[in-house]
Amino acid sequence: SIFLMILLLVLTSTSNAQQWSAIKSYKGEELKKIAMPLGGIGTGSVSIGGRGDLKDWEIVNQGALGWKPVFNSSFSSINIAPFFAIHTRDHKNNTQIRLLEGPLSDENLQGDWGSNELNSGFPRFDEGEFKSAYPLAQIQLKSEQSPIKVSLNAFNPMIPGDTKNSSIPVAVLKYVVHNRTAEELEITVCGVIPNFIGTDGWGGSSSGNKNTFRSQNGISGVYMENVNKDTISGKWGTMALVTPANEGVSYRTQWKSDLRWSGSLIDFWDDLNDDGRLSDRTEGGKTYPGNKPATLAITDNIPAFEKKEFVFILTWNFPYRVGWESQPGVDHEIIKNHYATVYKDAWDVALDVNERYEYLESKTLEFVKAFTSADIPNILKEAALYNVANLRSQTVFRDQDGYTFGWEGTGSVQGTTLNPKGARSGWGFGSCTHVWNYEVTTPFLFGDVAMSMREVEFKYATNPKTGMMAHRVRIPVKTAVQKTKSAADGQLGCIMKMYREWQLSGDNVKLKELYPFVKKALEFSWEESKWDADANGVLEGEHHNTMDVNYLGPNPQMSTWYLGALLSGEKMALAMNDKGFAKKCRAMFKNGSQWVDDNLFNGKYYIQKLPKPVDYQVGEGILVDQLVGQYMAHVCGLGYLLKKENIETTLKTIRKYNWKDGFNDHLSTFRAYATGNEKGLIMGYYPEGKREARPFPYYSEVMTGFEYSTGAHMIYEGLLEQGLEIFSAVRDRYDGKKRNPFNEGEFGHRYGRAMASWSGILAYTGFEYSAVAKIMKFNAMEGNFFWSNGYAYGTVKISEHNNKYTTDITVLSGKLALKEFHFKDANTLKMNKELEINSGETYKLPLK
């Protein structure tokens, strides 16, 4: 009301303070497993290791966890992996060269010929510490014997709502060197990256590689290409290692390879140590065979007790990928990566990044600072932010039209303990609907990416006649014949997600375009599939699902997805003025909801009603995500699907029986994602005498996506302590010592379902936003909170003074339309006209 509201516009300028925020710090043994991906959405990545090394080179259109490209350019030489080193010289001409890495761990030091750890013979720093808040990594390096200490600040641009600038194939490495002495030092920082174009960790040849030094528009560096490869091969592309430094740049386009017994390494080392500058090895135009390392150095003087930055920009462009590598029975089609339609080659990427470097870094830092400063438990921030890395890994790619696709997870060149010979670059092709249903990171950070996935699901993967949605999509989507069967939870969840994407975007045009497919997909539940043959809102027929089996008979897991889809269908039908269908959906929802509460709830939890004995079912087991549709309904702002009191009782039952304080006394019959004294929430628990002889396959495991969705649901229902404990248990398992904090796996690495972790932020803050109704909600009375709707992001600060509340709504990127603001206990502020808050603006609103 205009009488209850005073509106004050405060224009605030975006802070340019270059503060590198961190959520967590790792030291010692905790550094062993760390590998944080650097890259853009759909571009692949290279990871920065806990000690500062570059590892997991997955930029060549393939998952290749564990791969480091190497070069061995002379007889009887040890393989050398990519590295950065620093040369120091004081006024007495004392010199040192050290690898810009911390100490080695002891797990890979014994092999047939000494250490199996690459570059292990190089001098390095004695101490290392890794601080991170994705996509920022800060590696602190120091040694008592060194006159300097170094901070490697590594990042890639990431700005919520800005998909373009978050999809750049780049890794920025900024070495901040501190002079610890009372005299000036001459410093050279040198990077060595082998030109491996033509290989991808799985095979290929780098024959025909060529390196060229270039200097243009403020950058200097080495451009890497392969003149022999087929330009539409998935292994073909370009790379560049450049610096914006204007002076003190030296380089090599190749190393000598006609020197025996590691002579090429000695030649490099002596050259750098002589005067801190590199001399190219191109005497007489000679070209040496072998995998040519691009080598770039920056030399500068640092006064006593001062510091300077040495910036390197690594870019790549591998334009073409070969479809789904494991897509069965299909001739593999060539797909052009979307980022390759933006940039013509890696040099083009480097020019763009350098031109906008300050903006890209400052906006990334601004986002991370806003997020990490929020009054939200640190464990929720850690889980949410670290799993965003999955979007930058080879788990996700985008085609030339901007459509987004996802594996379930990526592969490892080391293979798998289940099937060592069955290693592959990706696991679970086809943007598997029932896996990707759980994640909520993409829609709330990059709404257009999420919407593109909905368009693929409905416009291309849904049969317009029958309404059946292929749960694994074949590509290219515009021409491929979709043959895979439907999964009930996948198809129904996609309907809920379409409602969510419509609400977050306010895109009525896109809803109108896709609504006929959405309607047909929902009708499939009772017409073609016979999942609900009598159309009474209860799934009784046989249906495939995320447990990779077919369920038979009503069960809560599928029922909640169905109820959420019916409610979503009703709301979208009303928006499309399809009143008859909306009425049908509402009637089926009401009947189905009542039936499930009356027939599946046993007083403690919900069970599956089996019409006959059959293997691989849940039965009367306590399923961890039996309320998964309700979890998603909360995320979507749909309200309750079943009785609130039954839901709360069920979650308490799950916490009591599915929780494990340790796994030394637990049999995991298939895969082990938790061992020893670790904690976690297992998929299924069977009360004594209730287990089927052959229960559903994954009943004895823990998997992080299911744990996050259940933990977040507990937080939504007010079970905050229990929910936080689940999030903590997961992150304690991924502690850097035992597992990589940036790689929560399931069926492959960096698993799509793990991005359910963002739901912890949503549950804790109660954040909802509808761009359709232009309403923002927070379940809070006081505090400073972060919000992001996939198209804009910012902060909300709610303050109280003398029982009067005010809120400052700040937009840091994008713009926000607003008519109502809701906060705790149903308090609502209605505005007399629609507000439009632009980037850099803050509105102060009185709430009570």
Low-confidence stretches: 1-17, 326-331
How many DSSP E strands? 38
N-C termini distance:
12 Å
**How can the largest sheet be summarized?**
9 strands, antiparallel
Total helical elements: 18
Percentage of residues in helical conformation = 25-40%
Structural class: alpha+beta
Question: If you compute it from the alpha carbons, what radius of gyration comes out, rounded to the nearest whole angstrom?
Answer: 28 Å
Strand content: 15-25%
Biggest sheet: strands side by side, in what order? 2-8-9-10-11-18-15-14-13
Q: Mean of residue pLDDT? A: 93
Outline: globular
Walk me through what this model shows.
This protein is of the alpha+beta class. It is 25% helix and 25% strand. It has a nine-stranded antiparallel beta sheet. Strands 1-38-35-34-33 form a five-stranded antiparallel beta sheet, with helices on one face. Helix 9 crosses helix 10, helix 10 runs parallel beside helix 12 (556-575) and helix 12 runs antiparallel to helix 13.
